[in-house]
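Case study.
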Amino acid sequence: MTGDEMGDAKGISKSPTGIEGFDELTMGGLPTGRPSLVCGSAGCGKTLFASTFLLNGAREFDEPGVFVTFEERPVDIVNNVASLGLEMDQLIEEGKILIEHIAVDPAELAEIGDYDLEGLFLRLEFAIDQIGAKRVVLDTIESLFSAFTNPAILRAEIRRLFDWLKDRGMTTVITAERGDGSLTRQGLEEYVSDCVLLLDHRVHNQISTRRLRIVKYRGTAHGTNEYPFLIDEEGFSVLPVSSLGLNHKVYDERISSGVADLDAMLSGGGFYRSGSVLISGVAGSGKSSLAANFSHAACASGGRALYFSFEESAAQTVRNMRSIGLDLQQWIDKGSFRHIAARPTFYSLEMHLAVMLREVVRFRPTLVVLDPISAFIGNSDQLEVQSMLLRMVDFLKSKGITAIFTHLMHSQEGAMETDVGMSSLMDAWILLLNRESNGEYNRELYLLKARGTSHSNQVREFVMGSNGISLIPPYLGGGQALTGSARRAQEAQDRRAELQRHVEMQRQTDRIEKRREKARAEIAALQADLEADEIELSRIRVDEETYVAQAESDLAAMEQSRRM
Amino acid sequence: MQDQPTAASPDPLKLVLYIAGQTPKSVAAIENLERICANMPGRYVVEVIDLKKTPQLAREHNIVAIPTLVRQLPIPIRKIIGDLSDREKVLVHLKVGE
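After joint prediction, the assembly is written out as follows.
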């Protein structure tokens, strides 16, 4: 055992299991050519893990496998995995999988003298050679302990079997039942030194969560956390969610909120891509509508949006958004919008996170909406919700995905204090208020924060109409900010005053104009007088000249007559 | 394979001994069985199968431990594992000499 480990300096090679998430977690899968122990209590998914490992090996990695079952009959195993969408019978027909059923009934056995399990070895060897197997599953070898009474022989034989499998280069999965205070009932973990996995199934507040932990993995830096895993109609998937840091890529790209007025409130015209936006508000303040607008904008700009709703079904969301002029159905049809609805109580918090992350990985969206995150708070404590959100935010950031979270506030007073824990996770925070004044409620939007962007500090009136959402600057002036009908009344009043002022000015203009006309007329009359005087004057002058000339000629004539 | 038929009673005893090569335990089992059979009354047939040579029989006959002695007849089938070092016990389990 120690001999070949000495020469193993170049690092161990790994065989992928094809189990979603698990291969990423272990950086490649299970150690090639070595036994791995999968332990856990009854019903935690050991056999399924082992079957999936074998099936994927045969189907995807061209590594045929032998399934040695000590408990269930081969037909049961085929049926069990068939219910999870895995077709084992076909692979058996193709000679890629062989089920070796080793049934030992203690009732018909008597032990007299020394023996060993060479028969098991021979059968295994025969099966391995028959299909050229590279993988082996032993499920559950510990049941031999109930069949044979001499544990000393069994232990020696099991140890020999593991070594033999290792010598044959078989990548082996050994399943074992969890014991009291130890990983396995018979202490098999002592014989498997390379890789030990622990599957767990816990119920908390009547919600069960399956978890996987890598207890030991020689030669691999593995996370020591518990990772939730899922068994559903698509088989076994592990969801690594914890090993995330703050070293994600940063984007300068902006994304639209789908509300032009809101984008305009931010210098640069929108929110940063891969940022996290919190939309908080009281009931009916338009959180979901705004979130749907974000989704719509993402789809319209060629992206993909994934909408997790914890309150509404897909059809309901589509119908409701149609009332504000959003056609989400077109994006669903095109495959760029996906709506996943699940009640918060459906899974545990951890599992919700895990399922969401898996869907994100599968759908590869550019924008993710969680509507609303406050739905979880009823079932779990604040700290847990916060840690889940932290992981969600980190995960989405690492993938460059914009995250929209809505949060239902119970009261508007003190809203900022209660959500302060969440605020630190968020890059932008849109506060939606619903305020009563003059006998009506008016929605208001305030951009509480937007990291790295200068933004308007104004409270805008948030109006949802059949053509979408618009933001209206409130009435400012006179020392007050008015919204709703108060704003409209004030504006109407202003309009009336304006009209009056305009009329008054018009009247004055007219009066002055008339006066000027009158003056101009007077000027014209005087001008006429002046001209008449001038004519008169010139006429007088002419008369004078005529008179003088006449006088002179008269005088000359007089002088002439005197001389005579 | 060795057969040791003895014609006597109408109810023959059919025994099969599974071994794997000439290991000490297999050799001991053959020797012990021969010794037991030598003093056994009645008709019996003994077959020895070496699974090293015919491993498919291990699957077909569902053999795990080596050596295994199977009483195929009369039914029900009885199995004894081990090197058969305790003669009395073997006889009790084979239900012969009752």
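Observations recorded in class. Chain A touches chain B through 25 residues (CB under 8 Å). Chain A has a mean pLDDT of 84. We will return to this complex in the next lecture.
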